[in-house]
Structures are given as C-alpha cells and as structure tokens.
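Before drawing any conclusions, I needed to go through one protein's amino acid sequence and its backbone structure tokens, quoted below without any editing.
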Amino acid sequence: MLTSILENKPYGSIGVKLIDGESYSYQNLTGLVDEMASKLSSHGVKSGTVVNIVIDNSIEFLISFLSVTRCGAIAAPLNPTYTSSEFEFYIKDANSSYLIVKDQDNTSVAAAQNASLNVITVGVSRTGLTLNDLKGELTHARDPEYVSDETVALFLHTSGTTSKPKGVPLTHRNLLASLSNIINTYNLSEADTSIVVMPLFHVHGLIGVALSTLASGGCLVLPNRFSASTFWKIQSDMNATWYSAVPTIHKILLDRADSDGAPYQSFRFIRSCSSPLSKEILLGVENRFGSPVLEAYGMTEAAHQMSSNRLPPFERNPGSVGNPTGVEISVRSETGIELRYSELGEVCVRGPNVMGGYVNNISANKTAFWGGWFRTGDQGFLTEDKNLTLTGRLKELINRGGEKISPVEVDQVIASHFAVSEAISFPLPDEKYGESVNAAVVLSEPVSESSIIEFCADKLATFKVPGRIFILDKLPKSATGKIQRRNIAEMFQD
C-alpha cells in the first residue's frame, strides 16, 4: 500500500522540512499517519469511503492524505479556491462522506454540511495531532483494515471537452508504479531535497514531487505556496537539488533572476511538466541557473508521468517530452492502427500506472481505450529511438499554466447569465500562462463585458474566469448547427 513509502528509512532521517524551521523525520511521519488513520478508522472511515481534503500545501495535507489511504479509504483532494457551487458538484459527483480541513473558515465546509458530510478539522505538529468534528475531539482509535494494492487510493476529476468533468480512480498499485517510474527516471535518492512548488491537490505536486521524494528517501521542503521572492533563499537554506513546475513558474523565476540574486549554479536538475515548454524558456533557464531542464509529459489518468527527457549525459531535446518512463507509448491513426515512426497521430499509453477506467462513465470508457491502450487525446509522433514530440491537443482543453480547464464548464456558466443567449469559450496564446481563457457571446439584451466577467467570478475558480468576453452578433456554426470553437478562436488570434 501507498504508506509503505515511509518505511525502512534510516532512523532520524528527515522526510519533510517546513519553512518555519520545523522538520519531521520519517519516523515522525509514520507515527502521525498511523495515529490519524487509527482515529479516522474508529470514526467510520474505511475501504470505499470517499474523503475530500481541502487544505493548502502543508504538513496537514500530507498527513491527511496518507492517513486516508492507510484506512483503505479514497482521498479526493480539491482545489481550495473553488467556489461553493464547484465544491457542491465535486462532492456530489464523488459521493463523498467526509471532508477534512485545517479550520472551519473554509468555503468547502458549508457545501459539505449541505451534503451531510462529516467535517473533520486537523492540526499537526511534530509531537502529535488533533482531530475534531462538530461534537469535539476524536480520541478513540482502532487499527485500520487491511489494504490491498488494488484498492482505490486517490480520486480526482479531469475536465472533459464535451461533457462534465470525469472521475479518475487511481489505485495504490497505480500510484506506486508511477512513483517508481519517476524515481528511476531522475535517479532520486536519499541525497536529494525537493521544493514543492505545485499545489498538492494536483498530480504534478502530489505525485510528481511530494510522494516521489518520500518514496526515494529524500527530503521534501514544503512551503505553503510558491513565492518567487523567497524561492532562492529557500533553495540555498535547504540545499535543494531539484524542483518541478509548469513553464509559467520557470519563466517567472527566469525574468526575476538577476533582481532576486539567483545563483548561476543551482539544482541537480529542473523538471517541467503539465504544459508545453518553449525552447526559449528551456535554454534560458538552463543557461541562467546552470541546471539541465528535463521536460516531462503526464496526465491524471496515468497517475502523472508517462515520458521524460533524461539526465545528462543524454541530450535534452527542446520541443520533445522525451522517452517513455515505465509505460508503453504508441501513436495511432483515427481508426486505432499503430503508425510508423515520425507519422502524426493520437498518443496512446498503457502500463501499470494507467487507470482502469473512469468512474460511472460507460460512454467515456468506450472511447477512452483501444484494446487496452488509453487514448490521451493528444497529437504527436515518435522517432525511431522512441522520443515523443507533442504537436497539439485533439481535445479542446484550455491549458492555463498547467491548469486544465474544461471549456464546456465555462460555456455553461456564461450561458446561465440572464442576458446571454449563446456562449462559447476558447483559448488564446498568453505569454505568461501559455493560454488564457476567453469567450464569445451573443446577447439577448444589452449588458457589459465586465458584468459578465463578474458573474463568472462568482461561479468559477479564479483561474477559470475569462479574461475577455467578445460580444458578437452571431457565432459561426457548422452545417449541422454546432458552434465551431476552433474557428472562433482563430477570429481573435493576433
């Protein structure tokens, strides 16, 4: 099971360091996880129970996540910036029974209570933890039940282009396979120290950095959030050897490098994932920070990583996402036929880290797999040496700084505005985030662009809110009456 990643570590070796100077040995972490898991078990958390975790990057998140999986239950982390309506949707869709937070001053609490969830607050220190529900402190404990590797450990949603977000179940086996792949790719060991930059509710931060570091026996530096102004001090103070982030963050660090006094020799390597990395940023980061930049390719359905560029002395290939890492990758035609090297098609994968199928979504599962191969929805080609290059997405997800946004979700919110008769969202290139969210609408009565944006801000997380609303007389449509998202996006390209 997943918590085995904490086992068999040298006595006293540090697993987690916080910015305030507090640290946790692997023995500390194991004790805290066992204590919380036993208390959750006595409170009814067991195999099949879905537990939402709405906590920022913190030791509380990490202990809560591992404790839930130790109970055989299903951890379902959610973005703390979601609105009430978004929390309500994800709680209902996951059929959740519990919510874990750090304090009651959290938007998710009201949504959880409306859905009759048990709300538990957690506080963690090196000497122990406190758990409370509405009735008071949880003090009773009992041993958690046996957990098999086939038990679902993590439940996340991935946004679809033509439907509601889809539920992705990842088993202990899926996660352990992914962690092993990541460790082997980057030769991670107890000598490494990583800085968590990405949010832990996302597979990039959780699996790509936090859990892989712990599984390797390394040390995890855990700030509450990414701050460019303190990043290099943290790197120096903690002797960090690597970090992983989306291109947006690499660019921010590069742009500020001189003013922040960034070193010219820094990390053993720098990893980039979750969004395409431009050649200019890759080379700029390598040259300025004196570290090889390794671009990787991952997605939620594969428990994060599927391919990566390799460490020196191997060459890094700008524009490429490297070689398969513990999975098989095949590029296939529209009819599912495997294509020859350098031929453009849909990227498909299979391996022990890949999910078995979406939850309660027969139609999605029918189209998501070809004879055991998972269809990523991404377009690309393989070279003879199995190097993968992505050329675009077949799916229409908007990729804003690594956050995958369903345009359909945005469409539906805008269309619910009383003055909007038709709406369609689309991405436009953005220097900072890669892509920005925009929308075009047809109005049924006069209303300003700003009022529609404000309306969206009340119903969507900040990163999903359109930056621009273009008001049109009509939206271009196909012969069958479908609105052409791609054509509309092209209308507003520079």
The chain has a mean pLDDT of 92. DSSP finds 13 helices and 27 strands in the chain. The CA atoms of residues 29 and 63 lie 7 Å apart.
